Amino acid sequence: MKFLKLVLLANICLPLTAVPASADPISIGSFVISSLLSIGAGGLLPAVSAAAIGNAVIGAAIIGASLLSSVLGEAPKINPGDFKSTFETGDSSEIRAVGRVRVGGLKAFGNTASGTRRFRLICHTKGKTTAVEEHYLGGREVTVESDGAVSSPPWARSGGSWAFIKSKIGDGTETAWDDLLTYFPVLWTAEHRVRGIAQSLVQYISPGIADDKFTKLYQQGPPDYERVQRSEPIYDPRDIGQEADDEATWAYEDNGPLCAAHILRSYPSLAVEDFDYPLIGAEATKADVLVTTKAGTEPRSRCWGMWASETPRGDVMDQVLKSIGAEIVATDDNSFSIRLIDDVRTPEITFTARHIIDLQWRSGPESVERPNICRVNYYSPERNYEMTEIDLTGIAWARNQDEIDRVGEQYMDVDLPFCPSASQAQRIARRLFALARADAGVVKTNFAGLAAWGLTVADIELPDLDVTETCAIGTPRVNDEEGTVEIPFVVWPTLTPWNPAVDEAAAPPEVPEMAYESELDTPVAPSEASVVQYADLSYETRVKFTGVDGGSIAEAVYRTYTDGEPDAYSSMTEYSGAGLDRYAYDATSTVGEKVDFKCRFFNSDGDGSYFSPLLTIDPMAIDNTAPPAPGLGGSVTGPTEGQYHVTVTATLNGMNAVSFKIQKLFLFEWTDVASSNGRPGTGLVHTEDATAGSGDREFRAIAYTSDGTESPIATYTAHIPA
In what order do the strands lie in the sheet with 386-389? Predict the structure, then answer.
């Protein structure tokens, strides 16, 4: 029977020691796969710092505080919020992005032409982007038309705009910008293509320094440009229309495992055959499953974020895997997959007493080292895409008050720069926090330990304690001279099922996109929206909203969705109705689509309100129920030369009405006297003369929907004096 020496280190901190070995475990598998596996369980138990991804060994006695600190990893922090601004530098790394991000970028070129036009070429991110959802000038969201014209106040002007924003997606087919060739023929040539970089050319036009408009537009110089974009297309093995080696077939994804595989694949030394895509696809399906959150439901694992391309691969992947709650695992054919980490783990291997030669054990870090307060930061869209701390006040799992009372506060910061969800961040942070407080050790086995290569979870029997623990394990280290294998481990914590009602804090409140206080009230969300079809078969999308005091200029915008993701906002034509009623329309069909609407107002000085909350209709559909009766009234004036003047006015009511008519009772029959297409709040007028004493005139008005459904009838009697 093998001699088993169990060293209990409940209150002893073992020093770091180096254990010589005559065989490098990299010899067991390919160098690349070995290096990737050294990242471990998404930062849960990296065999080494992920910054040293090329190495795949760990000192056998790295346990206790040293081992537990590796639970979180110590890779340099990545902050995607750093790339939100527009910056100038002579030496800048390329910016990579996945998922939805808010990005400024590098001012690659800037110059003025003719004294009135200033151009800026902004390089956003490396590689192809799939869509731009929102545009910002000086921190304020603006609407950009298909020709690049900024149509939002105060930039819009008669016949054009004071600013233009044009973009290229960065797919490598870029040619030189025509505007730069035209205005700077000496400085800019056809060879200046800036290929493979998602980029925007911003043109600022000056009204002249003596014009009051100049101060409103350029008081602090040309405003910086930022945008919210959907980043690189990503291969999804579940889509039979996509090919792993044909980027043109890929589509936007923010699925956690798919994004992680995509980032890995972009590095040298890795090919399609290194990835087990069937397994990755299966994990991607798990990541898409909707989980319950404090605010509703959301996919289990998403990935948004940015990083400098020069950042070491291990640092990036360490933080990506933590942020999505996943790990890299080897497969039988020497390839690898991305696997989500569950709170309850299933062991992949078991080590019993007959396998174990020696075991070093520590019952968690000492209380003076053990974290007792957890702080969580994530990439927050609610806070304008900045790394933001979640307020965990009152969340029991994030604080151990007994230990705080005994030894004081010991903080653990969980930074998840690729996590866009407060709910996802907290689910992951709870697990990491529990692991940082867990028991740990190193088990020395006979060569049976070689079977743990590429695995991340094991059951380890502790004979002297008469218990078998499920553990996260690091990369095995082989000592050929001794015929032993050493495996570091952390005992997997027992976690209760996640209950959002008590385990989850609310996401931070949203902040407005503007960096200054608005003088106007924020309008309420639009109240109604519709899509209609006129008799000539043309379509129109409409929205109704409410004005605010002091708001003399209205702006309403809408956006549709493509493959479940929002498109950029489009402008509408606004007009006023009665009182504070405001309407807007665009000549387009949105039948069957999900559409968001929002509005804002500007005063006469060009100062704007914040945008209203969204009105979302999903799906839009033509409504052919009977519309409300038109408003109908009139007046009789005169007489002039014996004639009275009769004016009859009908006002179209109802967002689904497309036309209306005024009829007059003549010889016991109703005869059309006025008809027109119309929009809600618009009027139709009929006038006629009447001789004194000719008797009352009877009128009525009817409205119609797209298929001709009639409204109730409105009536009006014009009394003609004798």
Answer: 386-389, 373-380, 411-416
Q: What is the pLDDT averaged over residues 275-292?
A: 97
**Cα separation values, 721 from 632, 647, 648, Å:** 21, 15, 17
Question: Which one-letter amino acid corresponds to residue 592?
Answer: G
Other residues' Cβ atoms within 10 Å of the Cβ of residue 459: 17
Residues 329 and 341 sit within 8 Å (Cβ to Cβ): no
Cβ 702 vs Cβ 660: under 8 Å: yes
Q: Across residues 582-589, what is the average pLDDT?
A: 98
Q: Is 381 left (phi over 0), alpha (psi -120 to 50) or beta?
A: alpha
If DSSP codes are grouped into helix, strand and coil, which group holds residue 396? helix
CA 45 to chain centroid, in Å, comes to 29
Start-to-end CA distance of the chain, whole Å, equals 126
Q: DSSP 3-state assignment of 640?
A: strand
> Angle, to 10 degrees, between the axis of helix 422-436 and the axis of helix 313-324?
110
Domains in the chain, start-ordered, CATH in brackets? 5-32+58-73+340-377+396-415+422-490 (no CATH), 100-230 (no CATH), 528-617 (2.60.40.10), 631-718 (2.60.40.10)
Mean pLDDT over 459-485 rounds to: 89
Provide the total of helices (H) and of strands (E) in the chain, helices listed first: 10, 46
Q: What is the pLDDT of residues 139-180, one digit of tens each?
A: 999 999 999 999 998 898 878 899 999 999 999 999 999 999
Cβ proximity of 299 and 288 under 8 Å: yes
3-state secondary structure of 278: helix
Cα four-point dihedral sign 34, 38, 39, 40: positive
Q: Which of 2-11, 231-240, 708-717 has the lowest mean pLDDT?
A: 2-11
User: How far apart (Å, rounded) are the C-alpha atoms in residues 402 and 644?
Assistant: 92
- Least-confidence region, from 160-174, 285-299, 683-697: 683-697
Say whether pTM exceeds 0.90: no
Question: SS3 of 39, please?
Answer: coil
Q: Please report which residue ranges of 351-485 form alpha helices under DSSP H.
A: 401-407, 422-436
In this prediction, residue 216 has a pLDDT band, given cuts at 50, 70 and 90, of confident
Q: Rounded to an integer, what distance in angstroms lies between the CA atom of residue 574 and that of residue 683?
A: 16
